[in-house]
Amino acid sequence: MTTRSPGISTRGEPGYGCGCETAADLISVDRALAIAADLARPVADRETLPLGAAVGRVLGEAVHAAADAPGFDASAMDGYALRAADLRGHGPWMLPVGARIAAGQTSGPLHRGQAARIFTGAPLPDGADTVVMQEAVTRRDALIIIAARPAPGQNIRRRGQDMVRGIEILPAGRQLGPRDIAAAAAAGAGHLSVRRRLRVTLLSNGAELAEPGVALDRGHIWNVNRAMLAAQMAGPGLDLTDGGIICDDRQAFTDALIAASRGADLVVTSGGASVGEEDHLPRALAEAGAEIHVRKVAMKPGKRLTIASIGQALVLGLPGNPVAAFVSWHVFGRPIVAGLTGADHRPPRLMARLSEGLSRRPGRREFRPVRWVGTGRDGLPVLQPGPADFSARVAELARADGLADIPAETDSLAAGDPVKFLPFG
């Protein structure tokens, strides 16, 4: 059976509470996200970049159209410009061709009773109000024959049809992709004001960690998180500093946190977040003078997630488990970065259906890797859930297409049941 909490999340999504607020330091995902959103204020500094160098950056100021686009009435296709009123009586009609106008050219006014050969994008001559496409015309030397009466105004792109001078084309906070660059160029913007790059420092913790590619000593494991998190953070809007592996020493961890916080907007740590004697993040944060805002989150995986601040720097402490670290960054890291860069962050959330049932222990909201294995008759994606012990399987991430977002109080789902889907991308 499926049970759901009657609580309503801070994002207005019923059924995604966890009933966990009574547990010491354990808060719901939505409450933790709300805290993170409040803390992640956009950096104030901006810089001006040429249009071609701004891809991936976040607009600091809105872009407005510098002129009407198009700036004149233009032909929407190759054909013949004419005055519709010149076609009197019943057709066919014969008109002499008195001009030829290509894109980028201009011509004098269209004389009554004449047509002008015109090409796509060329300005309409004064006096013309219609363009007949060339396929609807028979050409005989300097004359054209039109068999069917065209509608007045057809095949014309009117001045300002795309943009009117002064209107907002792109809002501040837009993360610029190819479509936005096209719109900015069409608006006449040669340079754009963007937020400066976000300064992020990554710290890895664990004496058992070895870099991939080297032989492992007994008891050691390869450091998955360092390369994985660096890849998740890669992008033109981030300036990432790899602080390396910090040994399992509280003072070393404290010193590394203090040093990183002096130059970074965001410090991301991996590992050391639990409560064992060799897990130094909580004590190191305290000794570094941090204010801790979130200690544990009712999510699976990723319960041991920390959000803190040291001075002006925000600290995101991720679990050492690679799957938990990956999921935690996907759920928390991306919106935190968006908040700090001022980006309008709207992660895709789709509804989907499960290809097979699953059972789970309720109490924490679960983000389980899933594969997109088809599309149902209703058009929804069909997802195959990963195994129950997915948090111990890094290989499952490579096979997954996204995460199923399972409410905290749900104990089972049957094949065909709807579920929220967070696709990777």
From TrEMBL:
<protein>
    <recommendedName>
        <fullName>Molybdopterin molybdenumtransferase</fullName>
        <ecNumber>2.10.1.1</ecNumber>
    </recommendedName>
</protein>
<dbReference type="InterPro" id="IPR001453">
    <property type="entry name" value="MoaB/Mog_dom"/>
</dbReference>
<dbReference type="InterPro" id="IPR036688">
    <property type="entry name" value="MoeA_C_domain_IV_sf"/>
</dbReference>
<keyword id="KW-0479">Metal-binding</keyword>
<dbReference type="Pfam" id="PF00994">
    <property type="entry name" value="MoCF_biosynth"/>
</dbReference>
<comment type="function">
    <text>Catalyzes the insertion of molybdate into adenylated molybdopterin with the concomitant release of AMP.</text>
</comment>
<keyword id="KW-0460">Magnesium</keyword>
<dbReference type="InterPro" id="IPR005110">
    <property type="entry name" value="MoeA_linker/N"/>
</dbReference>
<dbReference type="InterPro" id="IPR036425">
    <property type="entry name" value="MoaB/Mog-like_dom_sf"/>
</dbReference>
<keyword id="KW-0808">Transferase</keyword>
<keyword id="KW-0500">Molybdenum</keyword>
<dbReference type="InterPro" id="IPR038987">
    <property type="entry name" value="MoeA-like"/>
</dbReference>
<dbReference type="GO" id="GO:0046872">
    <property type="term" value="F:metal ion binding"/>
</dbReference>
<dbReference type="Pfam" id="PF03454">
    <property type="entry name" value="MoeA_C"/>
</dbReference>
<dbReference type="InterPro" id="IPR036135">
    <property type="entry name" value="MoeA_linker/N_sf"/>
</dbReference>
<dbReference type="GO" id="GO:0006777">
    <property type="term" value="P:Mo-molybdopterin cofactor biosynthetic process"/>
</dbReference>
<comment type="pathway">
    <text>Cofactor biosynthesis; molybdopterin biosynthesis.</text>
</comment>
<comment type="similarity">
    <text>Belongs to the MoeA family.</text>
</comment>
<dbReference type="GO" id="GO:0005829">
    <property type="term" value="C:cytosol"/>
</dbReference>
<dbReference type="InterPro" id="IPR005111">
    <property type="entry name" value="MoeA_C_domain_IV"/>
</dbReference>
<feature type="domain" description="MoaB/Mog">
    <location>
        <begin position="201"/>
        <end position="339"/>
    </location>
</feature>
<dbReference type="Pfam" id="PF03453">
    <property type="entry name" value="MoeA_N"/>
</dbReference>
<keyword id="KW-0501">Molybdenum cofactor biosynthesis</keyword>
<dbReference type="GO" id="GO:0061599">
    <property type="term" value="F:molybdopterin molybdotransferase activity"/>
</dbReference>
